[in-house]
Amino acid sequence: MKRQVNFGVITLFASVLISCATPVATPMDPATLTPPPDSTPMPSPMDPATLTPPPNSTPTPSPEGAYFTATPTPPIPIPTRTAYVTPTPPPPPDAIGTPGFDWEGPAIIYDGLKLSNYDGSQKKVIPLEVAISPWYSDYSPEAGRIVTTVDTSLWTLDVGTGIQSMLSLNGSSNQYIESPVITSDGTRIAYSLVHGFGEEDLKQLWTINADGSENELVIDNTGQYITDPGPFRLIPFAWSLDNTKIYMVTTTDSEASPVGMYVADLIAGTIEKALTPQVTLWDVSFSPDRTMIAYRTFQWVPVEGFMPEIGPPFTLQVTDLTSGATRILQESDTLEYHYPVWSEDRNQIAYTVRTHQTGGEVGLFSIDLTTDAIIRWVPGSEGKQLRPWLWLSDDRLAYTEEEVSSGWSLHATLYTIKNDGTDKHEIDSATSVIGVLDN
User: Fold this and answer.
1) Most CB within 10 Å of its CB: which of 47, 137, 206, 379?
2) Contact (Cβ atoms closer than 8 angstroms) between residue 82 and residue 220
3) Which CATH architecture has domain 47-349?
C-alpha cells in the first residue's frame, strides 16, 4: 500500500526564511494562548462545480464562492546546451550495511534513522555506516528506499534491510549535488548538479536509476527557464506519478522569496511554469497521486529599516496541477495555517492553526474536502507547537508536540492519535518524520 511522503526541503527553507523575517516573540500571558470558543475556523459551503479555470491567470477569489484559478502563460523554452565537463560515470554501486537487519509489520521512520510501530511498544535503530540527514533526503514508501546526499555523493538506503549504496561520486571540487528526489515506486532519482558557487554558475538537472545505472543529463542550464526576477536556481521537488515529469521550485541563498512552481518535461527536455498561483507556496504537500498540492500563503509586509514581516490574509489552499484550478480552504486575518498533509485517500487534509498576534497554538485540525467538515484532533496549549506528519489511516495521525520558549525549540515528542482524541500513544523524542515502512 502506498503511503505519503514528507517534503522536508521546502519546510526547512520556509522555516528559515520566516524565522529571519519575524521578530523574536516575547514571553506572553498564558491567558492569551487560549482561543475563545468561536475561534475554530469554519469554511463556508462551496460548490464543486465551480472548480474550472477561467482564462484570467490572476489568482483572485471568485465572488460566487471560495474558488479561484491561476493559469499562467508558460515561457517559450529555447533549449541550449553549454559545453561543460560532466561527471565521470560512476563505478558499480558500493553497498554497505547490515544484511541481517529486518523488521516485521508497519513502522514510522523518524529522525536519523529509527523505526517504531504505531503504539511505541516496539522500536529499533537502523544500523547505518554513513549518516543520513532527514532534511536532505527523500523517501519512496512503495520501495522502502531513501535517497540522500552525503558530502558530494548520492546514497540510497533500503530501510527494510539496512543496506546503503553509493550511486554516484562527484569528483570535482567546484560541483555539488542538491535536492535529490526519488520516484514513488523507488526506481529513479532526480537531482540538481551545480557547477561552482556563484549565482551565474551552471545548474543542471540529472536523473539516475536507483541501482546506479543510466546517470543521464536531462536538462542543461536549468536557469534559462526561470521567469521570476531574482537570484534563483531551480531544484527538484517531486516526481509525477508516471515518472515523466519533475516538479521544481526556485531557491536562493539570498533573502529573495520564490514564487510559484515549475515542471520539467523529461520527454521534451524543457521546463515550464507549473499551473500554480503566482504567490509564494509555503509548506507544500503533494497529494498521493501527485496531481494536487496543498500549501499556505501570506503577504510580506515591508518594515522600514528591518526585514519584512508576514501579514494577512493568511490562507490554506489546494491547487490542481493539471488544470490550475485553486480552492481556498481557510482564510483569516488573525489565524495562520501551517503544515498541511494529505490523507492517503485524498479526501482529508490535516493542518495546524496558530494565532498571528501571539503565536499561540490553537490546535491540530483536519478538513474533509468533500463535506468541508472540520475536526480538532488536539487542542493547542501554552508553550507548544503542533505538527502533523503522516496519516497512518483515514482516522489516525502521527504528529509531534514541540516545547518552545521565547521562540526557541526545547524538546519535541512524536505521538500517534485517532481523530476522536482517543488511542493516543507517546512514541519517542523526534524532530522529524520521514515516512512509513510497510513490511
Assistant:
1) 137
2) yes
3) 6 Propeller (2.120)
Cell numbers that stand for 152 in this block? 558530494
User: Which three three-digit cell numbers place residue 409?
Assistant: 525549540
The predicted pLDDT at position 232 comes to 83
- pLDDT number for residue 96: 56
Grid coordinates in use for 45?
459551503
Please give the pLDDT value at position 12. 36
Residues 320, 325, 327, 333, CA torsion sign: positive
Rounded to an integer, what distance in angstroms lies between the CA atom of residue 439 and that of residue 437? 6
Cis omega before residue 106 (within 30°)?
A: no
Which pLDDT value is given to residue 115? 94
Closest among 200, 87, 199 to 153, alpha carbons compared: 87
Amino acid, res. 390: L
Which regions in the chain score pLDDT beneath 50? Answer: 1-4, 8-92, 99-100
Largest CA distance in the chain: 64
Identify the pLDDT of residue 315.
97
C-alpha cell at 343: 490523507
Predicted local confidence at residue 79, as pLDDT: 37
What count of Cα atoms within 13 Å lies in the side-chain half-sphere of residue 232?
Answer: 22
* pLDDT of the residue at 283: 94
Buried b (16+ CB within 10 A) or exposed e, 335-347: bbbbbbbbbbeee
**Domain boundaries in the chain?**
47-349
User: What are 176's strand-pairing partners?
Assistant: 194
Identify the residue whose cell numbers are 520564490: 258
Residues 6+ positions from 372 with CB-CB distance below 8 Å: 43, 45, 46
Amino acid at 223: G
